[in-house]
Amino acid sequence: MEITDAKIFKIALFTSLFGIIGMLIFAGWIEPKEIAIEEINRGMVEEKVAISGVIQDIKPSSSGKSYFMTLHDGTGKISVVVFEATIIEFNEAGVDINSFKNKKVKVMGTLTQYNQEMELILENSNSITIET
Question: Does 69 share its domain with 13?
């Protein structure tokens, strides 16, 4: 059996299409890794993570358009930033952001660093769920 450029091209094309279709099918099931706050380090900036803990405090920003939630998981605390677009999503769904206070939640978002402190940016209103 002779391997020709045409056969190699067909094999490469088939495996590429198979891989792309597989990624499209399974992309919806991929979730960020769940970590503890004490495991967060500066090398994780821009990583998507999930953290479970209790929302201890909720404060509006000075502009009143964003909110800062303090999440505690038993290993540490981190500020969760909720921007105006997400607040609008909560309002449209009839959810008061203050309803998360003192509740155990799972938060998914992107880690960032601001003023030498690590923060978690909430992506959208579906990125926080109350755990039972």
Answer: no
Q: Are 3 and 38 part of one and the same domain?
A: no
**How confident is the prediction along the chain (132 residues), in pLDDT tens digits per residue?**
688 899 999 999 999 999 998 888 877 667 788 999 999 999 999 999 999 999 999 999 988 889 999 999 999 999 999 999 999 999 999 999 999 999 999 999 999 999 989 999 998 998 999 987
Same domain, 58 and 13: no
The answer to whether residues 10 and 67 belong to one domain is no
- Domain interval for residue 45: 33-130
How many other CB atoms are there within 10 angstroms of residue 80's CB atom?
Answer: 23
Angstrom distance (rounded) from CA 75 to CA 38 = 5
CA-to-CA distance for 49 and 108, rounded, in angstroms?
6
Cβ atoms of residues 65 and 84 within 8 Å = yes
